[in-house]
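Tip: read the tokens left to right.
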């Protein structure tokens, strides 16, 4: 499937909906953990009893995730996808097709939702942020360029085969 045929506005809306679902679920889990942290059954029975401390750490971590998801959603609200030609460099809202060792991947470069995967028609599209190592290396690349990525497993090379 040619990437130019993908409706990026709908793809962006699908990503927003996914993050909103995640926000609802994490908010519910955070509230339950917060209630558990203050529940009388979790009160310390001795100085070695860590139940309330452990539950409060969980509630705090989930509260931080709620804040993070809200911030990510705020970044996507005003984002407007732009069209890219074959000669354009990779920038925010680009769909990028990469090949690494004959394996092909498609990525949507947006400021939030990094690491998620969206099934779009017959494509599996990875969400990539400009803050990620690969996202940073892709910014400014053009069709035909090879982009390197150094990681714990060693160096990898990706060929940019399509930008839309």
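Filled-in amino acids:
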């Amino acid at each position: 499937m040619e990437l130019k045929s993908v409706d990026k506005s709908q793809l962006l809306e699908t990503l927003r909906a996914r993050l909103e679902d995640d926000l609802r679920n994490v908010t519910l889990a955070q509230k339950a953990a917060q209630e558990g942290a203050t529940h009388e059954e979790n009160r310390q029975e001795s100085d070695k009893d860590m139940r309330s401390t452990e539950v409060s750490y969980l509630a705090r971590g989930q509260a931080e995730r709620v804040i993070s998801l809200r911030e990510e959603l705020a970044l996507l609200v005003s984002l407007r996808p732009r069209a890219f030609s074959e000669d354009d460099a990779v920038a925010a809202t680009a769909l990028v097709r990469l090949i690494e060792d004959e394996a092909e991947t498609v990525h949507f470069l947006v400021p939030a939702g990094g690491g998620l995967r969206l099934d779009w028609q017959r494509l599996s599209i990875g969400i990539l942020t400009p803050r990620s190592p690969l996202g940073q290396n892709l910014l400014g690349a053009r069709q035909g360029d090879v982009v390197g990525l150094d990681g714990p497993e060693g160096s990898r090379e990706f060929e940019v085969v399509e930008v839309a």
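The first helix runs from residue 8 to 38. Residues 119 and 125 are 6 Å apart (CA to CA).
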